[in-house]
Design goal:
GO terms for molecular function: peptidase activity. The protein is an alpha+beta fold. The protein has seven helices and ten strands. The protein has a domain at 3-173: Tetrahydropterin Synthase, Chain A, CATH 3.30.479. Helix 2 crosses helix 3 (131-152). It is rod-shaped.
């Protein structure tokens, strides 16, 4: 909407760059263009404001397919007014010279024209298309048909309207029909999920069986190795016992041989010692056999004295000495104190 200000009975209009302004004064065109700014008197001015920017028109309408199913079509049409003069001549774009507001609703008229035209071509396409095909390929078919129909519509060029683009957002059936259509796919998905679950369970069972077999094989192999270990331990124990017995026998024989040799050596030593003692005794006896009795008595007394306890002093009486000498076979020599 144009910006209009008041000054001393005059009006000043300032339009946007995307708005085409047409100013008629006393039936003559005074200003014509986009983004204009000028002064005018409201009593003698006739103003029209035509938007020349791209405009989006969203539309939604119902249609029926070849199998009598109701669907909702959502689409968007982008258009622009390329001929402002033609549009102003065919539609009422006049604005109030005091406020700048449109006196009517020209954009609604354009929207109605585009919507009805698009709906007509959409109905024509979907009426010959089954619901399943419409849901799969209907978006492309409707878009192409609506774009071709709007391009061939004679009223649009006469009104100065160019269709820039046509977009079909969705074609949707009723909620119950949509749920019914989803059911087979959901069932199939559920079946695939169940099959995947069963396969996963089967794989898990197979893996568990493989694991159990491996564990059993491991236990069997462990038992076999334990048996081998027991056998080997028995063999080692028997061999150790045999080796120990052989070693004990060798050690016993060696000890016996050593003891025999030692006993023989001791016996030979005893014999030698006895022989030596016998020879010494015989020699001793031979020596004493040639000695006179008195000497032997003296030697006996000496030996006896060696075995007696220590005597610090000894007192002999004359009588005792005389008797002793008499026993030794010596004459009395007198008495010594």
């Amino acid at each position: 909407m144009a910006d209009i200000t008041r000054r001393f009975g005059w009006r000043h209009l300032r339009s946007a760059p995307t708005a085409h302004i047409r100013h008629h004064k006393r039936g003559k065109l005074s200003h014509d263009g986009t983004g204009l700014s000028f002064w005018y008197r409201s009593l003698t001015a006739a103003l029209s404001e035509i938007p020349v920017d791209d405009r989006e028109l969203a539309m939604a309408f119902h249609a029926r397919t070849a199998d009598f199913q109701d669907v909702t079509v959502q689409a968007t049409v982008t258009y622009r007014i390329s001929d402002p003069a033609g549009a102003a001549a065919r539609l009422d774009f006049s604005v109030d010279p005091d406020t700048g507001a449109w006196r009517s609703a020209p954009l609604e008229q354009i929207g109605t024209l585009l919507t009805e035209t698009a709906q007509q071509h959409t109905l024509d396409v979907l009426a010959r298309t089954p619901l399943a095909v419409a849901l799969v390929d209907g978006v492309v078919a409707v878009r192409e048909r609506v774009a071709a129909g709007l391009a061939a519509e004679p009223r649009l060029p006469d009104t100065g309207i160019d269709v820039v683009a046509v977009r079909v957002v969705a074609i949707r059936p009723e909620a119950e029909v949509e749920r019914a259509l989803r059911t087979p796919a959901r069932e199939q998905i559920q079946q695939e999920a169940d099959r995947a679950t069963y396969e996963r369970r089967a794989v898990a069972v197979e893996r568990e069986r493989t694991i159990a077999e491996n564990e059993l094989a491991s236990q069997i192999e462990l038992a076999r190795r334990e048996e081998q270990l027991v056998d080997q331990r028995g063999i080692n124990a028997r061999r150790e016992a045999e080796e120990k017995a052989a070693a004990d026998g060798v050690r016993t024989e060696a000890e016996a041989s050593r003891k025999v040799r030692l006993t023989r050596a001791e016996a030979e030593a005893a014999r030698d010692i006895g022989a030596a003692r016998a020879e010494a005794q015989a020699a001793w006896l031979r020596v004493h056999a040639d000695v006179d009795p008195g000497t032997l008595h003296a030697l006996a007394a000496t030996r006896l004295a060696e075995n007696l306890p220590r005597i610090d002093s000894l007192t002999l009486s004359p009588d005792l000495l005389t008797g002793l000498l008499a026993k030794l076979g010596r004459p009395e020599t007198g008495t010594r104190p």
